[in-house]
Amino acid sequence: MYQFLSENLIKILIDFKLSEKPISILTGAGISAASGIPTFRGKDGFWVVGSKNYKPEKMGTMEMFRENPLAIWKWFIYIKTICEKAKPNDGHFAIVGLEKIFQSRFYLITQNVDGLHERAGNSPDKIFSIHGTLDFMRCGELCTSELFPFPAIRKDREENFLESEIIQLKCPNCVEFARPNVLWFDEFYNELFYKSETTVRIANESGLLIIVGTSGSTTLPSIIFSNAIKNNIPIIDINTHENPFSKFLTNYEKGFSIQAESALALKEILDLMTRHLTQQRSN
Ligand SMILES: [Zn+2]
Questions:
Q1: pLDDT (tens digit per residue) in 106-143
Q2: Which of 16, 102, 125, 210 has the fewest CB within 10 Å, making it most exposed?
């Protein structure tokens, strides 16, 4: 009846449902690919296509911001413009369905800055955006740790800023340049802006980890993954491609690797959980 859920996985999911432990879902760029947002790291990624002169490792850095804040802002305003035009897809909506089922047991950890989980309908207080979001900016000089709304400027790639727009890119507190509240390649995770410690703690307390569309190439997701193995909790990896997580899971007894579009696999998990809910109620 299910294409992606084995008998063993179905049993594990039902057992988990009957437990009281939280579920952590970790998402990466793969879930937003179906919404038309290119991945940051794929060969058709933002950074590669988006900039002839700079590699992503250069554009998304504090070093580049120090050299040329306007170039960085041009780039991020363009990304924000793309993200706003995109719409959440069935994968995002399936995760909203899982939040409705698990409620206080539900946590969503995302590497995505596109805001599509929020727009799909997940509760903001249930979303841990470990790489930040394009909803906020903060002072580039950190005169305050206060977050300010992201500038309401939308532009195509090569459009220059007007003087009146440049003012909006500055810290309202000290008038130095502000920066998007996102984690850059030459920066480290922290609790203050990215809730990194809270996120690891929540994941450690979970009884099920579902990883969707991420290749495991950044450190925090790798820590969450290896802690889950240490804690011997079931892990489901959903990805259209083989990746370091899925390779590792072949040797882990409670590991399940589903090679599929995220929406298709998540819909099956949601369907199973919904059916089980109905059965419980009718018993
Ligand atoms: Zn400031």
A1: 999 999 999 999 999 999 999 999 999 999 999 999 99
A2: 125
**How far does residue 138's CA lie from ligand 1's centre (Å)?**
8
Answer whether 105's CB lies under 8 Å from 202's CB.
no
Give the CATH number of the domain where residue 62 resides: 3.30.1600.10
DSSP assignment letter at 134: E
At position 175, the amino acid (one-letter code) is V
Instruction: Indicate whether 235 and 276 sit together in one domain.
Output: yes
Domain range for 95: 1-37+88-131+190-283
Domain count, the chain: 2
| Confidence class for position 48, pLDDT limits 50, 70, 90 | very low
Residue 143 CA to ligand 1 center (angstroms) comes to 4
Tell how far the Cα of 145 is from the centroid of ligand 1, in angstroms: 9
Q: What is the pTM of this model?
A: 0.92
Q: Which residues surround ligand 1, an ion (CB under 5 A)?
A: 139, 143, 171, 173-174
Kindly report each contact of residues 122-131 with a partner whose C-beta sits within 8 Å and lies 24 or more positions away, as own/partner: 122/92, 122/95, 122/96, 123/99, 126/99, 128/195, 128/198, 128/199, 128/202, 129/194, 129/195, 130/183, 130/189, 130/194, 130/195, 130/196, 130/199, 130/220, 130/221, 131/182, 131/183, 131/194, 131/218
Quote the pLDDT of residue 78: 87
Residue 164 CA, ligand 1 centroid: distance in Å: 18
